[in-house]
Automatic annotation (TrEMBL), chain A:
Signal peptide: none annotated. This is Sodium:proton antiporter. The chain crosses the membrane at residues 72-90, 111-130, 136-152, 164-184, 204-227, 239-260, 266-289, 296-316, 336-362, 374-394, 414-434, 476-496. It comes from Cellulomonas triticagri. Residues 441-470 are annotated as: Disordered. GO terms for cellular component: plasma membrane. One of its GO terms (biological process) is ATP synthesis coupled electron transport. Residues 129-427 form the NADH:quinone oxidoreductase/Mrp antiporter transmembrane domain.
TrEMBL record, chain B:
It comes from Cellulomonas triticagri. It comes from the Bacteria. Its main location: membrane. The chain crosses the membrane at residues 6-25, 37-56, 80-101, 113-140, 166-191, 212-236, 248-267, 279-298, 318-341, 348-370, 382-405, 417-440, 460-484. This is Monovalent cation/H+ antiporter subunit D family protein.
Amino acid sequence: MGDVVLASLLLPLAGAVAAAVAPARRTVAVVTAAGQTVLAVVLAVTVLRDGPVATAPGGWEPPLGIALRVDGVAAAVGLLAAVVVTAVLAHACASPASTGPATEPAAGRSAYWPLTLLTLAGLQAVLVAADLFTTYVALELLTLGAVALVALGGRGAYGPALRYLCLAVLGSFAFLVAVALVYARTGTLTLDLAAAALPPGPALTTALGLATVGLLVKSALFPLHAWLPDAHAAAPTAVSPLLSALVVKGSFVVLLRVWTALGGDAALASVLAVLATGAVAWGGVLALRAAALKRVVAYSTVAQVGYLVLLLPLVTPALAGGDGVAVDVARTAWQGVLLVLLAHGLAKAAMFLAAGTLVGVAGSGRVADLGGTAARAPVVVTAYALAGVCLAGLPPSLGFVGKWALLDAALTGGRWWVVAVLLGGGLLTAAATARVLAATLREPGPGDGPPPGTPHGREEAPGATALPTPRAGERWPALALALLAVVTCVGSAWLADLVLVGAPPGVGG
Amino acid sequence: MTWTAWIPVLVLLTSLVPAVVILLLPERRERLRTALSLAGAAAKVALVVALVGPVVDGRRPEVRVPFLPDVDLVLRVEPFSLYFLGLSAFLWLVTTVYAVGYLRDHGHHRSRFFGFFSLCVVATSGVALSGNLVTFVVFYELLTLATYPLVAHDQTPAALRGARTYLHYTLVGGVALLLGAVWLTVLIGPVEFADRGSPAVAALAASDPGTLRLVVALMLGGLAVKAALVPVHGWLPKAMVAPAPVSALLHAVAVVKAGVFGIVLVVDMVLGVQVAEDLGVLLPLTVVACVTILWGSVRALAQDGLKARLAYSTVSQVSYVVLGVSLVSATGMTGGVVHIVHQGLMKITLFFCAGLLAQTLGLTRVSQLAGVGRRMPLTCAAFTVGALGMIGIPPVAGFVTKWWLGLGALDAGEPWVLAVLVTSSLLNAAYFLPVVARMWWGKAEAGAVLPRPVGPEAPWTMVTPALVTAGCSIAVALGAGLAFSPLSMARVIVEEGWWP
């Protein structure tokens, strides 16, 4: 199985190179993503059945070599990434405008295909890397791919892309210093070995603190989130889903591993609890108030990152050697947050695709100008609505399953503030989605659409023909992702089992 | 595993498949859309009929799907599920026929309408068949989401406002219900619905009554929103902006009924009437129900809009169900359970008629109805039956309910409830009889000219459903003593299942 792990790294890299030089970029990219999905399914099934898969390519064994390991989290997120990239590429094939503005040089648009595969390769590398230096390199690869993708948005996106680059590099630098510190103290780069060799003390706390801050900048935790709404909203339609659904998850998964391996820190956990609460509230409120549709969606990501970070304070007591209840809480919270992560990945990708398409259909990026789009693009609006249901954690959706598990964990552990954050945040998200839906249902201004009650014997009411409608290829990928986020609700127990495979002992893995 | 075990899933599929297909249909495929809706509705009725035999024989078809590692989604056919399912299947069929007629000439976005209409029925059937709390919460929330596009259907600013109010109320209520449900699951594991209550809940009531009281208050508080109990009833009159078939469905089978159905489940199949009484949740419930009954009626008096008057009447009438199950008496509980069907039949008749008057003659206000009985005699006859039933005049269904509720109140030692029932009936008469009188004997005001009758008074697809449900409202009262009448079924459910 080690070969499959290696293949899952090399396939998107090879695809990226091929897509950069071959004339048939789209075909290469889509075939690569589909192949990656197959590999990801194989890996997920294997991990679920036989446990984690580890390999050391080139025979460079730990403590210094390149170690690769696929645990349940890596398999699940890898599968998410492959599915999302496939759907987004399918959308991009149908809609050239979604890969960048037509005013830009043609080279910009054609760079979309290799860059997307490069980002996929970077994410896969982050997920399977088992030593700290490989992780660092993979994170940089992921960042560079993502920044370049943002810049495809044209002149308006250069500023946000540059800001994203600066902050992301700063975050990487903090992480690198933490890695260097660990290596200097322990002489190893393998996380588990290093954790065993590093006694509690200032060195461990410093390393943990630096890594946490660096990775949270990359994941855009409030109040380090300011780059995200600009970058994600300025990016082209076929890029924003990758950034929101996948890229921020890469650094979060690394944080989860570092945090659990190094045993966490109670004081830092309390700070994170406050920040996560702030993220859910601030992101939720701004999503409700933002005037531009894509910023609504981007702020919702800020809020969702808050949910993910809730996991760290919830597992910390168990890592510190807590009793059976603490382990119980940690295990349920682990499952809950990772289900939320997967749900958010699917739903946010669908939502950004839908939002980008709606902006095209409405001819304006403002929520207030969406009137009439529900009639002209019902499939796209449905995709947006389903994604919103999942993000708000309403049934039936995978987000609901995750929220249920998290609520379970919070109530078992008596963490009432988590309950309040989850329920309040869910209402804010639902309200933000309802606001957008109401805007799409509203009748457009006079003259640009049929009034209510127009007899539909004549489908083509005068004036309605001139308004743009989405193409077929722009409708279905978003709807497919949104439906996936909903139907995985039934029988999602296997996903909850999968993410526990190879999880740290403290959370009952 | 016999063939009946898969029936619960089939019941959902009979409306889920039409819902999905219809949502994808282009607007002009009217015949296919109608055929799918009707076929789904008819298939569901057939399935319900097929289930009666096995359930009477004591079988409880059940399907389980894992949801989280130690929590399942469960669909199970209990007698009470079948009772509610039967009501929704029958009324859905009737309402589909009505909606086809209603939207024929004035409709827009009909694929969306019928698609979500069917999805609503999926949710209602799911609520009816839920075997545990998680499943109930899933379908209960799905119902909220599926009805939103229906309430907003007209897309006017008023419709969007009404839909938003609806969503705000129900989502917040849903949060309270969710919290209560998760909390209870954390305390005692997945809560299966069971006759006379879940044993684990009874054990918890003995060891930690304070927490259980809080959990139950959260759940009932959440459910009260959809059940439109005072003071969280405010969404219902605002949701009146919906098209008439939607209002009919909302008031008679779907949303409001899901709320009261949930309350009945919590009281009788989670707690059990004995535990509920020991915890002291029944008396507050009785008081809230009585306040709602009176307040709804008082507000109905002042409404000139016909649908608004009917909406407040629903607020009042649905609480009879809550009142019934909050009485510690088999008779009272039977009265409450039977009113689930009775209120559904009568209220859907009234809404059908309101829709007929609005759609055919453009009449939406009580003050405009003078003399309309001569123009639309069948519609007004059906309305009269519904109105008399609501007041509680024999031989219409409402009388049976009030009789059993009254006996139950005496039986439970709460004679003051009788006064509430009498006052409420007087108020019912005060806001319904003037409407009826004006319809038949009122003189049209000068200037208010009714259009000349041409041919039949309205499309048969709209008149027939109203006549059928009006006829049923009388039949269930006249045949109350027969086997398989709603009353007999309610008695079986209560006396063999719930009464300790």
